[in-house]
Amino acid sequence: MFWQIQLALLLIAGGAQVFLRSFSVRVARIIYWTAASFSFLWAAHTSYLQYLTWKMSSLGQLLLPPHESIFYFIQYVGWRFFSPVLVLFLFSLLFIFAAKSMNKKGGERFFEKDEIYIAALTIVNAGYPQVLVFFVSFAVIFLLINIFFTAIRGGSSRISPYYLWIPAAVIAIIISELWLSHMPWWNMFII
């Protein structure tokens, strides 16, 4: 169910990006922080459900206090539910800082001001391991569009990836959830 919520957040952001051309850094930042917060809230909710599942099971009760330390449960949910969210959140923050400094040094020619937060939103919202599919789909879409426009215009031309971040993330989530999640090897990527 979480992936449908991820898609809804991305579609809202995509709609705002397309229909509100005055899409500001402030709006992009709010959507980014909302999505990041929601990811952590979802991890907390899933942890609570895990606790209830173990508490209602006769074998699961042995994994909870007083039979085990509470730190066992905290470590389990930390690795299982919070670590993928935290890693992507930290990676998206690293992307924001790197893109801002690169943009500043390059005279604002690499990214539009709100594009940095849109890209970070797609990174944090794609989830893990879907983010791996996201990077591949983004690179393929960007490459194909650049090849297409170079062939049409002749010579070199620079195409902005401004409107590609969200569609690439949507494609990655749909491919991951509806196709790759049913492949036996896909579980190797899950933390």
SSE blueprint:
Layout: H1 2-19, H2 25-56, H3 70-105, H4 115-126, H5 130-153, H6 165-178
Pattern of helices and strands: HHHHHH
Radius of gyration based on Cα positions: 20 Å
Derived from helix and strand composition plus strand pairing, the structural class reads mainly alpha
What is the strand tally? 0
In short:
With 191 residues, the chain is mainly α. Helix content is 71%, strand content 0%.
Kindly describe this structure.
This protein is mostly helical and about 190 residues long. The protein has one domain. The protein is about 70% helix and about 0% strand. The chain is built from six helices and no strands. The chain has helices spanning about 1-20, 25-55, 70-105, 115-125, 130-155, 165-180. Helix 1 (about 1-20) runs antiparallel to helix 4 (about 115-125) and helix 4 (about 115-125) packs parallel to helix 6. The longest helix is centred in the middle third of the chain and has 36 residues, at about 70-105. The model has no long low-confidence stretch (mean pLDDT about 85).
